[in-house]
Design goal:
The protein has about 190 residues and is mainly alpha-helical. It has five helices and two strands, in the order αααββαα. The chain has a two-stranded antiparallel sheet with strand order 1-2. Helix 1 runs antiparallel to helix 2, helix 2 packs across helix 3 and helix 3 runs antiparallel to helix 4. The protein is elongated. The N and C termini lie close together (about 10 Å). About 15% of the residues are buried.
């Protein structure tokens, strides 16, 4: 039998290579994304923040693309994925995952709407995503400014909860949940 960690698709015994690659790549990108946000929050005037802040927008757009790719891949593998526990914990896990996915979509969409509202547009590595209009839309700018940050921090809190629960599954429940995402099937 082939090495389970090299299986492309998900199976009832574990997550496939593509799912794991998307999950852990996005985890690394989110770590960078929140590191830049924290640095920006703590010291907006430093040269370091000025040097890396552009990557916050670029990484956010990449994460938006990846969440759609990951969601499509997850739907395509839905019937193959490992089964979840039943009961209240399963319901909480499902609601937590749905909320994380919703925020992974909403937070960058708010940033794009803000780029439109400011009139400056958004270009991603030379590709125009939102055209610059030069016209500011004050109400839309105010709404997006008031929501993007707080919802981003909520996403970070939910990610911490997600990590904490994966450790609970690994060390307390000992049910192999973390191993299925780390190594794939057995």
């Amino acid at each position: 039998m082939a090495d389970a960690s090299l299986q492309w698709r998900d199976s009832p015994s574990g997550y496939g290579f593509v799912t794991r690659l998307l999950h852990w790549s996005m985890a690394a990108l989110f770590a960078w994304q929140f590191a830049t946000a924290i640095l920006h929050l703590l010291d907006d005037d430093s040269g370091v923040v000025d040097t890396i802040w552009w990557s916050h927008r670029a990484t956010g757009f990449l994460l938006l693309l990846l969440v759609f790719l990951r969601g499509g891949w997850g739907i395509a593998n839905l019937r193959r994925r490992p089964a979840h526990r039943a009961g209240v914990l399963a319901l909480a896990a499902n609601l937590g995952h749905l909320t994380i996915y919703a925020l992974m979509i909403l937070v960058p969409l708010l940033a794009l709407a803000r780029a439109y509202a400011t009139g400056r547009g958004f270009t991603w590595f030379g590709v125009e995503v939102i055209a610059a209009t030069g016209a500011e839309l004050s109400l839309l700018k105010a709404v997006t400014n008031s929501l993007h940050g707080p919802l981003g921090w909520l996403l970070l809190a939910l990610i911490f909860g997600h990590v904490a629960m994966s450790l609970v599954h690994h060390f307390i429940f000992r049910d192999g949940t973390l191993l299925r995402m780390a190594r794939g099937g057995t």
